[in-house]
Amino acid sequence: MAPSRIRIALGLLCVQRGVLVPPLGIKERVLRRGEVSRRLRKIEAGGNGREAREIRKLFLPPLTKYPYSHYQYLIDLSYDGSSFSGWQSQTPNGNPHRNESKKQGKQALPTIQEILCRGLAKSLKIDSDIASESLCLRVAGRTDAGVHARCQKASFFSRNRLNPNVLPSAINRVLPPSLRVNLAREVPPDFHPRSHTLTKTYAYTLHTDDILPPLLRITRFHVPRPPLNLSLLAQGAKLMEQETSHNFLAFSGQREKARGEGRGGERGVESVEIQKVSGGLEIRVKGKGFLYHQVRHMVGALILVSQSKMSLETLRKILESSPEETSTEFKPSWRLPPPQGLCLEMVEISESTPSACLPLMYPELRHDERGWVTSRVQNKTAQI
pLDDT tens, 249-281? Predict the structure, then answer.
């Protein structure tokens, strides 16, 4: 049977039985002939098939008079960072974590973005060749290899309107156990998870007992000796708190690159809290944004201060120095703690974010057909 006849037959059957399926017509929404036949058999059998039930629940009818070609969805993620080579998909030569694995003869781990994009394409029936461009997966903050996340925020686009209540279970069925989608919500097409993030909270866990239990080795950094002075640790944390800004360029792993791109090292840190946990300590850092490796370098400096290997006055001078005074050849006296102790605990999104059914976030600005905010810069349309 010709593909056009299959679509007509499927449409007639859905009208008769009140079954809702995704609209067809373009490459990323056309179902393969075998998939259509299989779904038809499940639906004709009374809808007992799990996939058929998920299809009816997952895809919703389009909004009336919706002027844009795509809908956007915000998802809440959690993952075990030890199973991935960081968030961002890159070429093998452009990913330092993969290069290191290759040098050590290890098999390179996939990135979270790759696995999530592949899972979304499979669950939403999008051609894998165009999935990356079609989904336009974006994230609130890119995490490094080995860093965990309890509440990461990411967004993607879909030509079909989806049911946010069913979306997490539909995606999780095709994701590995080390990556999970916890929640989903519909957001306007001009929403951006990074631009509309208010604060991020990271937690670094230190294990200070003599013996590190094997089950905690992928979530804690073992620092048994010398013992940490909690008073000095709290004083050092207090010095780092500055909502306006401190110069954290010395706490960045890419000082030369940041300077070359014209990015400054001043960052505001709302709070640095020290909490006792079973067998160790947890250092929670909250702020709007962070430099590359900043939180881990902060923890390394605090460990050195608490062990009386660096004075509070030295830490104060580093923080109060200007970015121009921080040389790109600066070598910190502290050790960079390993990534497994770090976890992205919370990403706070602006509460003023409306749903896709409500007005846009920037109704007064110009939008393209996809719903992105655009501006004229040197006769070119650039996304804000």
Answer: 888 876 555 544 445 677 889 999 999 999 999
Element (H, E) at 152: strand 148-158
Alpha helices by DSSP H, the chain: 3-17, 33-44, 50-58, 96-103, 112-123, 131-135, 167-172, 230-240, 255-260, 294-306, 312-320
Q: Supply the DSSP symbol for 124.
A: T
Check residues 216 and 9 and name the one with the higher pLDDT: 216
Instruction: Please state the rounded mean pLDDT for residues 298-311.
Output: 95
Neighbours of 382 (CB within 10 A): 11
The edge-to-edge listing of strands for the beta sheet with 380-383 is: 366-367, 373-377, 380-383
Residue 153: which of 125, 192, 97, 124 has the closest Cα? Answer: 192
The confidence band for 38, taking pLDDT boundaries of 50, 70 and 90, is: low
List the alpha helices (DSSP H) in 159-227.
167-172
Largest Cα separation within the chain, whole Å, is 79
Backbone angles phi, psi at 269, to 5 degrees: -115, 115
**How remote is the C-alpha of 92 from its chain's centroid?**
20
Q: What is the mean pLDDT of the chain?
A: 80
Higher-confidence position of 55 and 25: 55
327 CB contacts (<8 Å, ≥6 apart)? Answer: none
Q: Is 368 a catalytic residue?
A: no
| CA 168 – CA 268 distance, rounded (Å) | 34
Of these residues, 80, 144, 190, 209, which one is catalytic? 144
Query: How confident is the model at residue 24, as a pLDDT?
Result: 35
